Amino acid sequence: MDNIDLYIHTSIKGVNPTTGKHIYVLEFKSDKGPVTLTGGPKDIEEATSYLAELRAINEALGRLKKTCSINIHIQNRILASALQNKWFAAWKSSGYKNSKGEDVAHKEEWETFNELLKDNTIKTVVCDRHSYSSWMENECGA
After folding, report:
1. Alpha-carbon distance 110 to 58, whole Å?
2. How high is the pLDDT of residue 99?
3. Is the Cα torsion angle 85, 75, 54, 79 positive or negative in sign?
4. Mean pLDDT by 10-residue block, N- to C-terminus, for the chain (142 residues)?
5. Do residues 38 and 7 touch, judged by C-beta distance below 8 A?
6. Any idea what the Cα angle at residue 112 is, between residues 27 and 25, rounded to 5°?
7. Residue 30: predicted pLDDT
8. What are the extents of the domains in the chain?
9. Cα distance between residue 96 and residue 60, in whole Å
């Protein structure tokens, strides 16, 4: 199984929906050496940092051609908890309902996530800075 590092950045900060950009970098080793694939920056409207990062993750997962072990480097701690604790699997089992019987926030994005995740395994790395931070901030304007 290949190992991939997925780095996520968004110019959107906080819990209030706003307009901004998100970007990602997929980094892995191929038979020919290291490979880096980027996606974005992409405009996003009326989104929180949580939603912007989740959408970037889904876009990156959509590019994968085979089963991988993925280290997802993100800033949003709430999203990291959802990924680390595998809430997405519980939500799928419950029909994307929360403990109150209501649809989970961003239900469509979580459905897409579960569909794209397939047999891939994930680990989250919460980080404010990484080797791509400066470049990503420049590309997104923050």
Report:
1. 9
2. 86
3. positive
4. 92 92 94 89 94 96 94 95 94 92 95 95 93 94 76
5. no
6. 15
7. 84
8. 2-140
9. 22
Using DSSP's 3-state secondary structure scheme, residue 32 falls into coil
Q: Decide if 76 contacts 53 (C-beta within 8 A).
A: yes
Closest by CA to 111, choosing from 96, 126, 123, 99, is 96
Structure tokens at 64: 């994968």
Q: Which of 89, 95, 71, 92 is nearest to 3 (CA)?
A: 71
Q: What CATH number does domain 2-140 carry, 3.30.420.10, 3.40.50.620, 3.40.190.10, 3.20.20.70?
A: 3.30.420.10
* CA-closest candidate to residue 92, choices 67, 68, 72, 109: 109
Per-residue confidence (pLDDT) for residue 50, from 0 to 100: 94
Cβ neighbour number for residue 48 with a 10 Å cutoff: 23
Ramachandran angles phi, psi of 100, nearest 5°: -90, 0
Q: Which residues contact 32 (CB under 8 A, 6 or more apart)?
A: none
